[in-house]
Amino acid sequence: MTLARGERVAVIANARLAVPDRLDPFGDEPVDIHLTGGVIADIAAAGALSRHGTVLDASGMWLIPGLWDHHVHTVQWALVAQREHLGQAASAAEAARIMSAAPVLADGRRVGTGFRDALWADAPSLALLDAATGDVPTYLINADVHSVWLNSAALRREGFESDGTGLLREVPAFEISRRLNEVDPAIGEALVTQMATDAASRGVVGLVDLDMAWNEPAWARRLDAGFDVLRVEFGIYPDLLDRAIAEGLRTGDRVRGAVSDLVRVGPLKVITDGSLGTRTAACSHAYPGDPRNHGVLTVDPADLVELMTRATGAGLACAIHAIGDVANSHALDAFAASGAVGTIEHAQLVSAVDIPRLARLGVAASVQPEHAIDDRDLTDTIWAGQTAIAYPLRALAESGAVLRFGSDAPVSPLDPWAAIAAAVFRTRDGRPAWRPEQALDAATALAASTHGGSGEGAATIEPGAVADLALVEHNPLTADEARLRAQRVFATMIEGRLTHVA
After folding, report:
1. The model's pTM
2. At 44, is the secondary structure helix, strand, or coil?
3. Three-state secondary structure string covering 367-382
C-alpha cells in the first residue's frame, strides 16, 4: 500500500467484509466502501460507483470493525518495554538470579515484571533476593500485579517494613506500582506513544485506560502534544471519586480543554477482591493447604453499594473488579442495589446462579480470554475444589450477557488476536483445548473485541457507521488458531484517518 499514516481515506476499494449477522448481498465478493466525513456513506460492488478522493486498495483483504481493548493499565504496560521479563522464571531462585543481572534504570532501580510464583517449588524470601541483588533497590512485579517482591534496599527506599519474605500484596503492592509508574514524563510519554502505535498495528482503535492515577491531565497533555493514534476512555478510582464528582466529570465526556475528542471519561473502577495467582481472590471454598484462606474482600459490600450509588448519581458508569465467586456475587448485588450501569471486570470464577444475573441486570462482562490460557494450570490446581464455573465465557454469552474483551495489559500483552484465539480455541502452544465447553464462536469473539462488545451493541460495517476500521489478512470468522494469533493488519483507521498502514 502506498498511503501514509495520517491520510484520510475516501474509498476502501476491493475489500471483503468480515462482519457477523450481515444483511448485505455481497458475501465474500469484493466491495468498495465509500466514506464521507469519517462515516461510511455507501457500500457497493467493487467498481460499481465512481471512486473519488484518496483510495485505499484492499486487494481482497478482509475489512473488520476497529478493535478495542477494554482493560489496559496504560503507563504500566508502556513501561514493560524497559523492565526485565520474568515470565520464564521457574523458581524464586531463578527469578532472583535474573534480576541480579537486570539493568539499573535511570532512577537507580531494577524492575522486573511477570513472575508467577503460585506453582514454584521454592518460596520468595527476602534473604534470597538480597543475596542476589545486593544494595540496588530491586522490584519484582507479579504477573497479576496484585503482589510485588522487593529486596531490603527497595523496602527501605519505599518506607515499608518486611515480614521476612519481601512480598507486598494488594493495596501496598498497588502503591508500589503507582510509584514505579511515576517516571520522567519525557520517557513515559515516548513509551506510551510507542505502545499506542503497536496497538494500532494490531487493528486496535481504542482502549479503556485503568491506570491507578488522576488520568485526565495526563491524557490532555498527550492530546496537546499531538496524540492521535487511539480512542481512550479513562477510569477513576475510589480515592479520587470526590474530586471527579466535584469537578463534574461524567462518563462519555471529552477531556476538558482538549482540541480532540479522542479521549473521554470512562468508569469508576473499584477493586473488590484479589487475584488467583496471589491466592487472594474471594472464593466460597478455601485455597488448598490453607483452610482459613478464602481470599479477601478489599471493599466491604455496603461500602461498594455506597460508592456505586454516588457514582451513578453523578453520571459515572462503574467497572467492578471481581475475580472470585464471592466477589462476583457481591458485585452483582451492588449493581442491583445501586442501579449502576457498567461492567464486572474479569469474572473469572462465577457461580452458576449468578451467571444469568449479568444479563438481567444489564451488566457487561469485561473479560480477558488469554488469562484462561495463562492460568489453566493454576486453575486446575489452586481452584480444583471450587464449585463455581471458571472462565465461563460461553455460559455468559448464552445467558445473554454482553462480553467485552481486553488484555489487562501488562498481565497479558495488548493483542486482540491472542484474545480472540484464546476465546475460540481455548489453547496455545499446541496443548489440548482447556475446558472447551466454554469456547466461543468466532463471531461472538470478534464482536466482543469491538467497542460495544457482543450483542446488539456490537460494531458493524454499514452505511451510517463511523469508519473506525481495520484491514486484515485472514477472515477472523473462519481462520484457525495459528492464523488468528499471527494475523497481519494492513491498515487501521479512525474515522477514515489512517493510524497504521503496512
Report:
1. 0.95
2. strand
3. ECHHHHHHCHHHHHHH
